[in-house]
Design brief:
Strand content: 25-35%
Largest sheet: 9 strands, antiparallel
Number of strands: 11
Helix content: 10-25%
Oligomer: single chain
Radius of gyration: 17 Å
Structural class: alpha+beta
Order of helices and strands: HHEEEEEEEEEEE
Shape: globular
């Protein structure tokens, strides 16, 4: 059964990439074209792995005990906080908490400047309220715990609050409390 799911995931991801990221060899070159075409297989390999039981702190020089547990706290009348807010000085580097591949680099209304990283077991790691993204960070880039994804800020709905990183983890079953996994 697991093999069927993996094959299905490979086919789905390949379809998405081929239909959404059609590189022009003249513009991006053969190396980038090869990267784009092999990325779905790399993603599928991550889906087949067991998710981590411990991950790195995305903001260095902070301990787990320095983070107040706000997971599940009310946010307005219609939602709960699905992550942890990690407060730090504006511009502090934000590192990937896990090895994986960049799934999305962009913006949204709540998170402002965001990065999403696909990790083992299909977990999605969400980094939000960034001041800015790391220079040259692109979808499909392989990342490690030494990769800077962006910098602590107040973008999105965090304007007017102290600078912080909103760090969320999502699996097929929904949001996971990041505090339970941080080393």
């Amino acid at each position: 059964m697991k093999n069927i799911l993996i094959i299905g995931a490979i086919i789905f991801i390949t379809f998405v990439f081929i239909n959404n990221f059609k590189p022009e060899i003249g513009e991006r070159g053969a190396a980038e074209t090869g990267k784009t075409l092999t990325t779905p297989f790399k993603y599928a390999g991550l889906l087949a792995k067991e998710p981590e039981t411990q991950i790195e702190m995305p903001v260095r020089n902070l301990g787990r005990k320095q983070i107040a547990d706000t997971f599940g706290a009310p946010r307005g009348n219609d939602r709960a906080h699905q992550g942890q807010d990690i407060f730090a000085k504006r511009g502090t580097p934000v590192y990937s908490a896990t090895n994986g591949y960049v799934w999305r680099v962009g913006q949204n209304n709540l998170g402002g400047n965001i990065v999403m990283v696909l990790g083992a077991g299909g977990r999605m790691y969400y980094y939000a309220h960034l001041e800015k993204h790391a220079e040259n960070l692109q979808v499909g880039d392989e990342v490690s715990t030494e990769t800077v994804l962006g910098y602590v800020g107040t973008s999105g709905n965090a304007k007017g609050t102290p600078p912080h990183l909103h760090f969320g983890i999502y699996s097929a079953g929904g949001a996971i409390n990041p505090l339970d996994l941080l080393k």
